[in-house]
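Objective 1b. Sequence-to-structure analysis of Probable allantoicase.
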Amino acid sequence: MERPKWTNEPELASRRVGGGVLWANDELFAERENLIKPAEPEFRPWNFGHKGQIYDGWETRRRREPGSDAAIVRLGLPGVVEGVVVNTAFFTGNYPPAASVEALSVVGYPSPAELSEMDWQTIVPRSPLAGDSENFFEVTDRRRFTHIRLTIHPDGGVARLRVHGTPVADPRLLDLGSLDLAALENGARITGASNMFYSSPANLIAPGDAAVMGEGWETARRRDDGNDWVTIALAGTGVPRLAELDTTHFKGNAPGWAALSGSADGEEWFEVLPRTRLQPDTRHRYPLAEARELAHLRLDIYPDGGMARLRLHGRLTAAGREEVIARFRAGA
C-alpha cells in the first residue's frame, strides 16, 4: 500500500521532539508511553511477563462493561495536523475494532483532569481499524492544536500513534530578535531535497541534538559528478548572524565540504557561507558578519553524506515577525 504524502511531514507527537503521553484510563498490559516511541514497534515471540505477552505498544485490559479506552498526548511540536497514523503492528486478536481522534489547543500546562473537562474537537471520527497494520487518517481541520486524544473502541492494543503535520510556533514564547531561523519548532520547513535515502532531511532542523546517526539526514553514495542539497523555508524573513553545521556521529560518511546560500524568494540565490571544508563528527560554527536578509536557505553538501543538524541563528525582520504572528493567528 502506498503511504499518503502527508506522512512525509514532521511527526508532531514523537518523544524525539518532546511529545508526552500525559494520561490513559488503563494500561494494564502495556504502557501508554510506547505510543510515541520514535523507533518502529518490535515483537519478540514468547516474551512473557507477569501480565502475559509483553507488547511494544499501549494495551488495555478486556472490558466487561460498556465504554471505551483513551489516552491523551501532548504534542512536542504544536501545529496543524495533516494526518494521523494508528499503527496496530503485531496486535492481531487484541487490536481495537475502531478508533477516533480528538484535538485541543490550550495555553500553558493543564493537568490531565483539567484537559478532560475541556472542549475537544473531533478530527478523526470513529473509524474501523485493521489489525497488525498502519491505519491512515487524513485530517482536514486547519487549526493549530497542542494536544491529541486517541480513543479506542472499546479496548485493545495500539503499537504507535503518529501525528504528522506542520509545526506552528507561538510567538509569545519566542524571542523574535534572536532565534534559530531554521528551526522546525519555530516554523521553518523543508521545501526540497536531492536525496533522502537513509533518513528525512527534516531531521536536520529538528529540536535538540541527534543522539545517533539515524537522527540526522543522510544521502545515498553518489556515483556521479553532482552533489546533494536541501532547501528550507525559514521561520520568517530574517538576518542571520551565525550558522552551525553539525556532523556529530557521522565519521566515515560526513560530507567533505558544505556551502550555504540564501534567497528572498526561493529562486534567486546569493552566497551566505562559501564552500567550506568539514570535519567528521564535529559541530562547526561560523559567524556571518556580512549577512543579508533571506527567507529561504539552501545547504549544499559535497559530494554526499550525512549531517546531524543545521542551525541558523539570527533575528527576524519586521516582515518576518509579521509572518510568524500571522501563521499563529491563522491556526487559532
